[in-house]
Amino acid sequence: DSLDLATTVRVDGFRLVFEQHVTNIETGSTVVQAETTCVVVDPAWKLQRRLPPSLLACLSSQPSY
Description:
Blueprint: E1 3-12, E2 15-24, E3 30-39, H1 53-60
């Protein structure tokens, strides 16, 4: 099968939310749709309530396809 994978990333406070949608190119039907929420933790697994500036800079410089 030929598939199309579309991924978007959005910042939601201190979370990164990845949304993915896989579509069969020939039929146009959705194969799978998923959402993953990621957070930043320190080496002791303590939740960080802020995204590091370097990560935000990297996200803002990514091209859109």
